[in-house]
């Protein structure tokens, strides 16, 4: 059934695809930059807090008499050094912006014992309710998840850091194992710094960065879509409308004069404009092609089919050539002055290629020669009549320009031979011979074929002699 009219509009128009691509790009950019900003801000701030915590822990640890403190923990009795350390830690808490400063020891996975907990002056001496004292054991206040990082710090060298989500907000904790002279850990010195505001600041900065990216992305998207519409989508739509109109008008048209394409006014100075010119050139070639087809239809019947098609090259085979000769002989009997010619082409060194590189590579050479013959003799039928032999029957346009076409054929072969980037079986060599029908010499097509074949072998001898 014939199909007429324009095709259905694409379900994925280019403009919408470009817009969607820009939006997805901006979204992914926001996500990536948001994550990167969050990680960057968090890393920078946490590094400052880790340095701050390390200084406090190092400073505090330098004032500890480890043997005396260990003895106090074991006996649960305070000493003068213990009292001085507690007072010193209270001063640290008063002077520095920290949440808690304390020493504890781990009893088991579920319990820990307070050793010293620094307090400010009011909590230490006025409102003492809730103060932790030497020997205080945790019960329900801390679970295994809270105690685990403190417990692990006793096995680590240096300060360990971790985050805690408490009832009072987020704390960033630094813990340092206290060790005796022989290196045995007996307690943990820890400091907590409230980072609740830091979390809010990081979220705020991340949001600000994301909003900025969204705004910049919106501006970029608007500019890009405007440019794309002016230089890509709108010209392509114009080109599509022109091509569809041409296709609707040309469908089933056998009058070449009516096959006219109206080129749209596209001045983008990019590939779209080049494409428009290419389409125009293509429609002109189509007119020539249709004209050739119509002329050929008057002189020949349908010759397509597997019976006359060469399996390797796809062109017509010896059977197809024999049928063409029968038709040509009939035409010649009706018009003894018929103008036609025959070109014989033979692939050189095929046996050597097969012996050296295998028949598969030899087949590549045959196919490449077939393509070359069909490309050069565009308006004439090409036949593969033997393993490495091709015949071209020339009439009309090709016959009139035969010398030029042979020169073109040989020039292309020379280019192949000089191109060192090609494989040996791609640098094909071929001999070509041509002769035109002469009513005074030839009684039929066979005579023309023989003379063209002789010309081809003379060419082959010359080429072999030059090579030697």
Describe this structure in words.
It is built from 13 helices and nine strands. The two termini are 62 Å apart. Among the domains are: 63-194, Beta-Lactamase (2-Layer Sandwich); 301-467, Reverse transcriptase/Diguanylate cyclase domain (Alpha-Beta Plaits), CATH 3.30.70.270. It is 56% helix and 15% strand. It has helices at residues 14-61, 66-75, 80-95, 121-125, 144-153, 196-250, 271-299, 318-334, 350-357, 359-376, 396-400, 402-418, 445-467, and strands spanning 100-108, 111-117, 159-166, 169-179, 185-194, 341-347, 382-384, 389-394, 430-436. The longest helix has 55 residues, at 196-250.
How do you describe this structure in short?
The chain has 468 residues and is an alpha+beta fold.
CATH fold description of the domain at 301-467: Alpha-Beta Plaits
CATH architecture of the domain at 301-467: 2-Layer Sandwich
Following the backbone from N to C, one meets helices and strands in this order, namely: HHHEEHHEEEHHHEHHEEHHEH
DSSP strand tally: 9
Report on the biggest sheet.
5 strands, antiparallel
What structural class is derived from the secondary structure elements?
alpha+beta
How large is the count of helical segments?
A: 13
Mean pLDDT: 83
What is the global morphology? elongated
User: Share of helix among residues?
Assistant: 55-70%
CA radius of gyration:
46 Å
Which CATH top level class of the domain at 301-467 fits?
Alpha Beta
Strand content: 5-15%
Task: Provide the CATH superfamily of the domain at 301-467.
Answer: Reverse transcriptase/Diguanylate cyclase domain
């Amino acid at each position: 059934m014939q199909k007429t009219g324009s095709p259905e509009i694409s379900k994925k128009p280019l403009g919408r695809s470009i817009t969607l691509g820009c939006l997805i790009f901006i979204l992914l950019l926001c996500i990536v930059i948001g994550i990167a900003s969050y990680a960057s801000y968090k890393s920078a701030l946490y590094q400052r807090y880790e340095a701050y915590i390390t200084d406090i822990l190092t400073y505090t640890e330098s004032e500890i008499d480890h043997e005396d403190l260990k003895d106090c923990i074991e006996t649960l009795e305070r000493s003068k050094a213990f009292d001085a350390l507690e007072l010193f830690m209270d001063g640290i808490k008063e002077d520095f912006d920290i949440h808690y400063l304390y020493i504890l020891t781990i009893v088991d996975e579920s319990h820990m014992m307070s050793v010293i907990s620094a307090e400010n002056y009011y909590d230490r001496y006025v409102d003492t309710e809730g103060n932790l004292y030497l020997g205080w054991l945790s019960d329900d206040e801390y679970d295994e998840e809270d105690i685990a990082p403190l417990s692990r710090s006793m096995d680590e060298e240096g300060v360990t850091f971790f985050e805690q989500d408490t009832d009072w907000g987020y704390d960033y904790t630094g813990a340092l194992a206290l060790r005796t002279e022989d290196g045995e850990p007996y307690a943990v010195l820890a400091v907590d710094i409230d980072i609740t505001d830091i979390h809010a600041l990081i979220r705020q900065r991340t949001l600000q960065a994301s909003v900025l990216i969204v705004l910049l992305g919106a501006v970029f998207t608007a500019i890009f879509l405007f440019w794309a519409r002016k230089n890509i989508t709108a010209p392509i739509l114009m080109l599509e409308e022109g091509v569809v109109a041409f296709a609707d008008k040309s469908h089933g048209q056998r009058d070449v004069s009516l096959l006219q394409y109206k080129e749209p006014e596209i001045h983008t100075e990019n590939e779209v404009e080049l494409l428009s010119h290419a389409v125009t050139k293509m429609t002109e070639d189509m007119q020539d092609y249709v004209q050739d087809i119509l002329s050929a239809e008057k002189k020949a019947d349908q010759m397509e089919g597997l019976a006359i098609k060469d399996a390797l090259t796809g062109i017509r085979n010896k059977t197809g050539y024999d049928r063409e000769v029968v038709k040509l002989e009939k035409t010649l009997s009706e018009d003894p002055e018929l103008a036609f010619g025959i070109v014989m082409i033979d692939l050189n060194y095929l046996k050597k290629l097969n012996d050296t590189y295998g028949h598969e590579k030899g087949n590549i050479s045959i196919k490449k020669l077939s393509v070359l013959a069909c490309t050069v003799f565009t308006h004439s039928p090409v036949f593969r009549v033997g393993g490495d032999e091709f015949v071209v029957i020339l009439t009309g346009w090709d016959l009139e320009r035969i010398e030029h076409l042979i020169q073109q054929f040989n020039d292309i072969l020379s280019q192949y031979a000089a191109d060192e980037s090609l494989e040996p079986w791609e640098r094909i060599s071929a001999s070509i011979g041509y002769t035109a029908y002469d009513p005074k010499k030839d009684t039929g097509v066979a005579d023309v074929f023989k003379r063209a074949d002789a010309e081809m072998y003379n060419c082959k001898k010359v080429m072999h002699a030059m090579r030697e």
